[in-house]
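Hi R.,

Here's the chain you asked about this morning:
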Amino acid sequence: MSATDDLRTIGVLGGMSSESTVAYYRQIDQGINDALGGHAAGELLIRSVNFGEIERFIQTEQWETAGEYLAAAAQDLEAGGAEFIVMATNTMHKVAPAIIRAISIPFVHIVDVTADAIQNAGIETVGLIGTQTTMEASFYRNRLDKYGIDVVVPDPADREAVDTIIFDELTDGIIRDESRDRYLDVVDDLVAAGADGVVLGCTEIELLIEQADRPDVPLFDTTTLHVNRAVEYSLGERTEFIDTN
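And the predicted structure, written out as tokens:
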């Protein structure tokens, strides 16, 4: 029996957007290959939903309907043989409770993974950038608060700019230098407001800015953190799942 025979199957709930789903797919395969070598790659299932529906749910604040929609997709992954699930988006973790209730396999919550990294860095206050839902709703801040982590968010004009760039550019794979500069200005303002690090709380933001852009400010790339945890679980390097309730 080879090492790859022991891999846990990862269920990726994606399509929000395809840009982030592709990043999860590639990085999971790369992580497994880095660990096992040769042509080893991830054992995974991807259930990609219609981003147009998700965007409509967000704009019209149909969160209950969104939860039902994503819960059904998560059940598809479980039925297909996934042994645990990661959802390739930050924003839709707002409806994570509905998904968790609908499945019997573990759900790896992106905020829990991010909180672990923040705590390991010895940081107590972070800035948060992402969609307006992520920055303004309580689900993200409240979950970080459980770990003793305080959150500061951009001012209203900056929140709108960050959100617009995500939906009008990054979800379509459009990368503009002007948008990178705008994001970095927001990062600088958050640090000036007391943040000791900044959470890149949208799975597409890694397409635009990276740690090298602000080497003195810890940037918590939620995509990479989430993927790395999924790889650890798949390899059996971690066996205990965080209680996501």
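The longest helix spans residues 18-36.

Let me know if you need anything else.
M.
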